[in-house]
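Predict the structure of Helix-turn-helix domain-containing protein.
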Amino acid sequence: MSEFLTTGKAAALCSVTPDTVLKWVKAGKIPAKRTAGGHCRIRRGDLFALLKQMDDQQLSVIEDDRQFKFCWEFYSETEEIQAECSQCIVYRSRAHRCYEMSQLPYENGHAKLHCQESCENCGYYHLVRWQNQNILVITEQHSLQTELEDGTSLKQYNLCFTDSEYKCSMLMEDYRPDYIILDCSIGSGRVWHFVRNIAADPRIPFVKIVLVGEGYEFPQDCEKEIFAQVESPLTRVTLMKLLGASNQNSYD
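Done. Here is the predicted structure for Helix-turn-helix domain-containing protein.
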């Protein structure tokens, strides 16, 4: 693995533009050297140190219009996926946050090709740690969608909405939600089918479902482990309070 990076490669690793990297260099945030041809080169370790510094300040460097980078993309020198990565559970589950799976032993499928002594020494960890969480909301109620979209305390979440099983399945390919809010008002039968299909989807093995609705019960014959709360579905008021509190606790 090369020690020095071009501004383009450094930008790709950080999910920012090359201009942003050059601004960091000019501002003295990261040291750089010049080639004989005058091109800027950045030491990989210095880039990771900057990511850690920004992580310590609870800042994400990722720009809104940049594509999310997986760990195998972050550490790859080419566009091709390493053969060892293709067999790793992180790659097979398309996990956005590989560090949440770091305790899995090798025999359970975690290849740990790029793992350092600890996540604190990993540049990728410091890049993505404070990235917004994805929340998929399944509802037919426009009022619930509006309430969530207008919530001033929920700006650190990436919200996506759907009202059908087909759209939900299609979204899983790229969106990869951390949580799924499932509105019980769509009917107990549909709730049951949604839960069963989500639980069986290998693309989102660690997703948690939050059921929302007053006077509803958990679907029968569904494993409770997939639910983010265990007593009963939340009311809309409680949901908004919990999302707001979670957002503040993550960044305070």
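The two ends are 37 Å apart (CA to CA).
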